[in-house]
Amino acid sequence: MPLVIPKKQPGKIRVLAFGTFDILHPGHIDFLKSAKALGTELFVLIARDSTVLKRKGTAAKFSEQSRCANVERLKIADMVVLGETEDYLKIPKRIDPDVIALGYDQKAPLKLLRENFPHAKITRLSAHFPEQFKSSKLRNIFPENF
Q1: Torsion over CA of 55, 58, 59 and 62, rounded to 10 degrees?
Q2: What is the rounded distance in angstroms from the CA atom of residue 98 to the CA atom of residue 120?
Q3: Which fold has domain 14-137?
């Protein structure tokens, strides 16, 4: 079934956030709520399993379907979608965000984002207790088959 992105409505501000969201924690929830506050619609793009492995060098603990469902269950985002495995910009271009929200430590190709979304405001959001809620720290707490 093809992905259907709703048509942009006049007066709405469309925000795009993206990430792995593997071990969902209060830092992620704060990030998503802060991203949502930047506009009227929040679209969240979840990294595919193959992308996580390629970018981070390690597999996600939870499957892409599970991570997507977990973010949907929060009921913060208006739409949660899985990213593409090859053309990472294909879905963001279809979403056509007015704002791109980045996490405080998110490694994102800023030059590429600015070139492809010149009209979008790119905002880096602040951390939410990073000494407690950082995925790389929490990853070691949970057993492999958690």
Answers
A1: -100
A2: 4
A3: Rossmann fold (3.40.50)
DSSP state of 78: S
> 109 phi and psi, to 5 degrees?
-75, 85
H helices of 57-102, in order, are: 64-73, 90-95
Residue carrying the six token digits 């492995």: 53
For residues 98 and 133, the model is more confident at 98
20, exposed or middle or buried, with CB in 10 Å at 0-12, 13-18, 19+? buried
Q: Where are the domains of the chain?
A: 14-137
Per-residue CA distances from 79 to 6, 54, 68, 139, 142 (Å): 9, 25, 10, 26, 28
pLDDT in tens, 80-109: 999 999 899 999 999 999 999 999 989 888
